[in-house]
Design brief:
The protein has one domain. It contains eight helices and no strands. The N terminus is likely disordered. With 264 residues, the protein is an all-alpha fold. α3 crosses α8 and α4 runs antiparallel to α8. Belongs to the ATPase A chain family. This is ATP synthase subunit a. InterPro entries: ATP_synth_F0_asu, ATP_synth_F0_asu_AS, ATP_synth_F0_asu_bact/mt, F0_ATP_A_sf.
């Protein structure tokens, strides 16, 4: 970082690496509510786009799919075969609307980070992953109590172990199931989107600063490297955005199944 600062020095100005402030947004308009910000706006836009796409795809399905219906069916089969069916089995079709919504909503929210003008992954604001994770967690506990009754709290324990083992195992299992699992479900998505956006912002700023803002002979090569790394990181980020949506929906399917049936 010190080397970059020295190379960026020009006319008393210094290169300033982006920090957490790039995740802070003012209200959309002067005097507006503090919560009405760019991330909230595009979270709603992403939700509406998902609704519009699948309405277009399946409102009037054809025997031979074309256009939006064709894409929609490909997405449906991917979520069904790769996310829902491995965990839910015979319960797959019942939970497909929820899992489809989670996967595509999170994926769209993530992709916003590489779309011009928006350039911000919605899930990098911790509030959005937390809301989704809490919803899945509450659904999991509700299904567990409904389908397994009070035994839900004992069914998660392996049977046949010596009783002294349970003294250590019970608090660990309950802590993992009811606190750590929903926490990591949200933080995994948030942390990856936060870190990815920060890295992209840093290298893109390096390229812009050294090539356009404060060009120097010594700094031009650094700027070129920044541009190249930005391109490569953008490609990697697109993959990570997809994988994080996939993992979030996959864990949701696993948690739902754990509520429907006791683990054996």
């Amino acid at each position: 970082m010190n080397a970059l600062t020295v190379l960026a020095s020009s006319g008393g100005d210094e290169f300033q690496a982006p920090g957490p402030e790039i995740f802070d947004f003012p209200p959309l308009f002067s005097g507006g509510p503090a919560w009405l910000t760019k991330p909230v706006l595009f979270a709603v836009v992403g939700s509406l786009l998902i609704c519009a796409f699948f309405w277009t795809a399946f409102a009037k399905p054809k025997l031979v799919p074309r256009g939006a219906q064709n894409l929609g069916e490909v997405g449906y089969m991917f979520v069904r075969d790769q996310i829902a069916r491995p965990f839910l089995g015979k319960n797959t079709e019942r939970w497909m609307p929820l899992l489809m919504s989670l996967f595509f909503l999170i994926w769209f929210w993530n992709i916003f980070s590489v779309i011009p003008i928006i350039q911000f992954p919605i899930a990098s604001h911790i509030a959005f992953p937390i809301v989704l994770a809490i919803f899945v967690y509450c659904l999991k506990v509700y299904l567990g109590l409904r389908h397994q009754g009070a035994k839900y709290f004992t069914n998660m324990m392996p049977k046949g172990l010596p009783w002294p083992v349970y003294i250590l195992l019970v608090p660990i299992e309950y802590l993992s199931t009811f606190i750590i699992a929903p926490f990591t479900h949200a933080v995994r998505l948030f942390a990856n989107m936060f870190a990815g956006h920060m890295i992209l912002a840093f290298f893109s700023l390096v390229g812009f600063w050294f090539i356009f803002e404060k060009p120097t002979v010594a700094g031009f090569g650094v700027g070129v490297v920044g541009v190249i790394v930005t391109i490569l990181m953008t490609a990697l980020e697109l993959l990570i955005q997809f994988l994080q949506a996939f993992l979030f929906a996959l864990l949701a399917a696993m948690y739902i199944q754990s509520g429907l049936e006791a683990d054996h």
